[in-house]
Write a structure and sequence with these properties.
- About 45% of the residues lie in helices and about 15% in strands.
- The protein has about 425 residues and is α/β, with parallel strands linked by helices.
- It has two domains: about 260 residues, 4-Layer Sandwich (Metallo-beta-lactamase, Chain A), CATH 3.60.15.30; about 90 residues, Alpha Horseshoe (Serine Threonine Protein Phosphatase 5, Tetratricopeptide repeat), CATH 1.25.40.880.
- Strands 1-2-3-4-5-6-7 form a seven-stranded mixed beta sheet. A six-stranded mixed beta sheet has the order 8-9-10-11-12-13.
- Strand 8 and strand 9 form a beta hairpin.
- Helix 13 runs antiparallel to helix 14.
- The longest helix is centred in the middle third of the chain and has 27 residues.
- The protein is globular.
- The mean pLDDT is about 95.
- The structure holds zinc ion.
- Zinc ion binds next to helix 3.
């Protein structure tokens, strides 16, 4: 068994619980060899590589920032031509490394790489062009970039498919299946010869990214259906686009089924409450992930989190109306804030109350009050100091990368106005 598979086996079997699996780091300089024909290069995103009699088949080509390192890691493992690269989906960390692989093929005078992906990927790239600025601001917050930035150069898939298709490269079959889940354009693959499943982002060693507050719709139910379909194949090997590979059918099936069960539970609880006519507020504060799933080392809410998934389930089946009539055609936030400040005896009163609530640990209410104080008196330096402190305190207690990125950005916004 390869070193990587041994490490993940110890974690899933409960022998070594200290393994850090929440990987968002720099690309690995060498490939992890899983077997004679399979290697994986850890990066943001990973590149999974299969060796066939007709050249290499890759799953994902990583981000443009990490791809040059990934190319050299793969080249350390194999000098074969790259025959095909499958985009597991169109997120930028999976596709924008394409140019580095195209350049490598040109330098080596290899034939052109065929890029394959789901038919919804070109529409995603069009949407990225329409929303480049918005996505730049999101990624500045989410990924702590110094300035807003989002790529605009995409290599389109040369071949697309709609529901499923089978590739035969050098006698090795790759069964590609479309699934809605993290995105509307996801592909997972079954490779019967190796009893391997390439999962893309449908399993990421962290709670599924089915909620992301700043991005388009995710699909919790369809995601669970895809995980169940993969589990039914009893794969011996799980090859993810983020984090480490997993070996052994029992382990692979258990992580796929537990992740499916987590999504199904949130889906069922949310729909049950929606069907009683509950407001979004009640749904968010009632639905909880069952404890036996929440404690699993690969379902920690370190990237996305269950509360955000509940919101996305609401958005999918309901609308943007949250059930609070004051919110359907609301006043401006600043007008409500000024009114509340006047009632309280000034914006500073709201801010100091926020400060003491934060000290007492009620950070949810503290954030509301400090934001009102700021909106009522946006140039008040004392209020900015308190606002920065409240959001910094909130950032420290939150677990998910998405929530902490937003609170960090809010704290920085007030810090910058203090100087
Ligand atoms: Zn990804």
């Amino acid at each position: 068994m390869s070193d990587m598979l041994e490490r993940t086996a110890r974690l899933i079997d409960g022998i070594d619980t200290d393994l850090d699996v929440s990987f968002l780091g720099a690309p690995a300089k060498s490939a992890d060899v899983i077997s004679d024909e399979i290697a994986i290069v850890q990066a943001f995103s990973n590149v999974v590589s299969f060796s066939t009699d007709d050249g290499l088949v890759l799953f994902d080509v990583s981000h443009q920032m990490s791809a040059p390192t990934v190319v050299s890691a793969i080249r350390h493992w194999s000098s074969d031509e790259i025959h095909t690269a499958v985009y597991t989906h169109g997120h930028i960390d999976h596709v924008t490394g394409a140019r580095a692989f195209i350049d490598d093929a040109a330098e080596r005078r290899h034939r052109d790489i065929t890029f394959i992906g789901h038919e919804a990927i070109p529409a995603r790239f069009e949407r990225y062009d329409l929303t480049n600025g918005y996505n730049g601001h999101i990624n500045k917050r989410q990924f702590r970039l110094p300035e807003p930035f989002f790529p605009s150069d995409f290599v389109q898939p040369h071949v697309t498919y709609s529901d499923h298709t089978t590739l035969d490269v050098g006698g090795t079959q790759f069964e590609l299946h479309h699934a809605k889940g993290e995105t509307d354009d996801h592909t997972w693959a079954w490779v019967p010869e190796h009893k391997a499943v390439c999962v893309g982002d449908l399993f990421i060693w962290q709670f599924p990214n089915a909620g992301n507050p700043q991005k388009v719709q995710r699909f919790a139910w369809e995601w669970a259906v895809a995980l169940r379909a993969m589990a039914a194949l009893r794969p011996e090997l799980l090859l993810p686009a983020h984090g480490l590979a997993i070996g052994g059918a029992d382990r692979v099936v258990s992580v796929l089924e537990n992740t499916a069960a987590a999504l199904e539970s949130l889906h069922e609880q949310t729909l049950t409450l929606m069907n009683t006519g509950a407001r979004l507020d009640e749904v968010i504060h009632t639905v909880r992930l069952p404890a036996h799933l929440a404690e699993l080392p690969y379902l920690k809410p370190t990237y996305d989190e269950p509360e955000f998934v509940v919101r996305n389930i609401w958005r999918l089946y309901g609308g943007w109306y949250d059930g609070n009539p004051a919110h359907v055609k609301p006043a401006r936030d600043a007008d409500v804030a000024r009114e509340m400040a006047a009632l309280a005896g000034g914006a500073s009163v709201l801010a100091s109350r926020a400060e003491s609530l934060a000290t007492d640990g009620d950070l949810r209410v503290a954030c509301h009050l400090v934001e009102m104080a700021y909106l009522a008196d946006p140039d008040n330096a004392t209020i900015h100091g308190i606002r920065a402190a409240v959001y910094e305190a909130r950032r420290k207690v939150e677990t998910s990368f998405m929530a902490t990125g937003i609170y960090r950005a809010a704290a920085l916004d007030s810090r910058e106005r203090l100087v």
